[in-house]
């Protein structure tokens, strides 16, 4: 069980030295209990107290690593039920299924196609991360060969899906170096699968036929010393699956139930007969609260919305995405190219820069720090005021790069034109379009 703030306080040095960033040990204890502080922030905790506090300071849902290297992904590690309470940290890992009997040429073609599903959006590379290899016929050699081919020739992480110990052993031998997720330990094989996962230091999924039935299995495996577990309550009906995800999240967070304090894996591929419905189910599980979702295939038209939905859900709602303040060169501008200025809200930047790129007109784009607010909001909040914008243009260094002495401000900030003129008396201040799609025509006219 997690410790209360007062129980934690009793284990702290009680010197109120403030080195942890808060005024008192009591305040630090309260923050630790609510997951708002890290134990490492206090340098004076004794080893003995550290052991006792480790449990209290550990996330209520264990972060589990799958894969190695640059493509390593963490699932779990969440601390809140609702995103607006703080943030969600580790995006749902999205995977697709292949059977162990797939021909090598077909697998190669699939991996090539799946690897091409990478999308750039607001500065992020969005892509799926996982391939699940499912044992379809008990052929250990074929299972191992498929897993090895994926591990050797692609950047995808792996889930090894079999309940047969010998098949799992050969899969682990073939691709253990990539830290695959073993799926799944059941009531029948938990001892053997637990020992294999422990011996190879691999994450292990547990499958049962209800949330309640996961608990004894989880107890047994943690009792064997396993820490990196992933839960599958076995539900394959949409409503039940949704309820199970919520029940597991609530039990882990609200009831501090460590037996279910692990990320989950869900299988939309086993819950629908076509990829469209699977994708809708996957969307539901990305929102609440699948740690991993497995589809039967990837297709651009269903994968892209899922990736964007995941991006939106797993960003910090209190910290808007921003780009760095500065001068951005688009389409190789020269000293006579037009100069536009806008805010540093990432979406604003990417939409505006995308339209400028599309216009093929060489342009200087000045991005002013507006604390991540879009144009209208920034203007209303005083973060895109005329004198600020004028001062920014002056100090940006654009006058050294361009002879142009005309700056185009966003249409939604037309009200600041007079103040910008006062700050830049030698410049022409032009009000540009309100909406980004009108930028290409505007630039071409100029
Ligand atoms: S750093 Fe440690 S000892 Fe100092 S105030 Fe914080 S909790 Fe107390």
Describe the structure concisely:
This protein is an alpha/beta fold.
Task: Report on the architecture of this protein.
With 446 residues, the chain is an alpha/beta fold. It has three domains: 5-57, 3-methyladenine DNA Glycosylase II, Chain A, domain 3, CATH 1.10.15; 64-313, Alpha-Beta Barrel (TIM Barrel); 326-445, 3-Layer(aba) Sandwich (Rossmann fold), CATH 3.40.50. Helix content is 40%, strand content 16%. An eight-stranded parallel β-sheet has the order 10-9-8-7-6-3-12-11, covered by helices on one side. The longest helix is centred in the middle third of the chain and has 16 residues, at 238-253. The radius of gyration is 27 Å and the shape is globular. The structure holds iron/sulfur cluster. Iron/sulfur cluster binds next to helix 2.
